Structures are given as C-alpha cells and as structure tokens.
Amino acid sequence: MNPGMEGTPPRILVVIPAFQEERSIGGLVRTLREHYPYDILVVNDGATDRTSEAAREADATVLDLPCNIGIGGAVQTGFQYARDRGYDVVVRIDGDGQHEVDDIPKLLEPILENRADAVIGSRFLGETEYRGSIPRIFGIRFFRLLVNLTTGYRVTDPTSGFFAINRSLIEFYSHHYPSDYPEVDAYILMHRLKSRAVEVPVRMYARTEGKSSITTYRAVYYMVKVTLSFLINCIRRFG
Amino acid sequence: MNRVTLVAICASAGFLLYILEMVRRRKLREEYSILWLFGSAMILVLSLKQDWLVGIAHAVGIVYPPSFLFLVGILFILLILIHFSIAISKLHHMNKKMAQEIALMKEKAMDGASGDPSIRR
Lengths: 239, 121
What we know:
The complex is a heterodimer of chains A (239) and B (121).
Chain A: E1 12-18, H1 25-35, E2 39-44, H2 51-57, E3 61-64, H3 71-84, E4 89-92, H4 104-112, E5 118-122, H5 134-151, E6 163-166, H6 167-173, H7 182-192, E7 197-201, H8 216-234
Helix pairs in contact in A: 3-6, 5-7, 5-8, 7-8
Chain B: H1 3-24, H2 30-48, H3 50-59, H4 65-114
C-alpha cells in the first residue's frame, strides 16, 4: 500500500496486453529492457500469430491465454499475476507502440511518493500533438463529462490505457475488471474504492503496426456498452 | 371435437413427448427443460379444456380466446430466451476465469520446470 517507504525497493511490473502484435511486441519489450530494470509481463490474449514467441525471444515473461477473452480480461490476468507474485506497482502499456516508453517514470512518481493510488497518462494535458477523428473527440468529451458528473474525478483522457496502479487497486482489479473497454469503467471502480487518481501528461502516437481495436462500426457499440456498464457499475455491489 | 382442437392437442402432446425424450436421452439438461415442459403442458391443457381458455381470456378482458393462447406462448418464449441470456452470461464469466487460471498455471508450471527463474523458455 505504501511502496518504497519500507526500505526495500518497490517491485514494479510492466503489463502489456497483446493480441496479434508480432511485429511491434519484440521491439517494445527490448526498449523497455534497455530503459528500466522492471519485470515485463506480456499477456497474449489468444493471438494466432507469433506474438507469444516474439515476446519470449525479447525475454519477457509471457502468459498465454488459451482463447481470446477481451483486452480487459487479458489486463486483469496481468493484475492477478502481479497480486500472486506480490508486486507493489503495475504499469499498463499498449503493445503496439502507441505509448511513449520514456513517460513511464511520470506515471510511477506519484505512486512511489504515495500521493496517488492510480496515475493515468493523458494525451490532452500539456502541449499535445494528438489529433483524433471528430467522432473519437466527441466520444472522449462525452465520457469526460460522464466521469466528471458521476465520480467527481476531473479527467481529460478517460479512455487512456496508459496508467500505473498500486497494491490496493491491483488487488481490487484482479477481482473486478470489465472484459472489454475497461478504462472508463475503471473510474467507477476507483471511485468506489475512494482511490486517489491523478492524470499526468504523456505522449501518444498513431499506431505503427496492426489496427485499433475500435473500428468505425464498433464505435457506436463502444459508446453504448461503456455508458451502460458505467451506469450499471454505479448501482452495483462489489463483494 | 373439431379439427383445429385435434391438431392443437396432437401438436402440443407431441412437443411435450419430444422434450421428455430429449431429457431422458440426456440431450437436454433437466434445468433447461423445466420451462419447456411447463410451457408445452400449459398449451396442452388449454387445448384440451377450451372452456378454461375462454374463461381465462374473458376474465383478463381478451375478446378473442385464441389470442390468449398466443400470449401464453410468446411469454414462455421470452422467459426461455432470458433464461438463455443469463446462462450464456454465466458461461462467459466461467470461461474467462478458466482461461485466466490456465494462463497463470501454465506460466507457473514452466517457471517451476526450468528451475532457474532467469531461464523461462
């Protein structure tokens, strides 16, 4: 709960959910290895390409899910691993090179100083190069409003999948985490746990390989599903 | 007994027997057969006892009694579909948990087999 304050250095795990990322995952793992001493866990969400092998060749620990269970389920498996192995902090980063590896210390700092339970990287704080399509910007504004009104968290980037969490949230998320599109829902879960969530500015890039899990025709489904599960989570019990 | 009554009785009795046979052969689990059995039994009873059908229909304010039969049928189908949605959701959850458990166990097994935690291939 209070990493870095008991003398022993905090144990940090980088979790990378990956599905059909054979071309980018190896490079990402190697870059992480060069920059940081942290353990790296790739959760292969039932990919049929060489994602798992590429991650192993780059010397990451790999969890192979026997079938595709959705990105939220894959990330949750990473949290379960972190919980079982007693990690203090989990950093979650995309496997496709969208998130800037150099920004990881910014995510860790507030947690290590015990100023936050969750730190979420925002592409909209500070000067930003990010240009999204009009529907995407609309969606982000909508979720921003939804999160602000229901939880009080003043977020700028509610769909960001680049974040770090401490032990309290690792434990909670390993029991409760949505199967797909989990980022917006996570704010309700954090709110329930009275977690301290802060945003820090990070850089995000257009994808280098593969394609976004959110295609145009899925965008409407995404909006409806996330809004519904968000509202349901408002009235749900977490045992 | 008119012809339409005979057809209704034969059809609902045949359906009831078919469901029972499926349960007997273990092709349909008992818990999933309850709603089917109950639904087809009800249709059978209402085809046999048409004065009951007319009585109930009039009691709830339905002028044309056979449309009450349709209502009962549709309500059962709705119930069964909701039942399926719940069952699928439960299976979905169980499937997810099992996949996660397998992935964690596989990693642990490989980790243990190599003996040295730095070698994980």
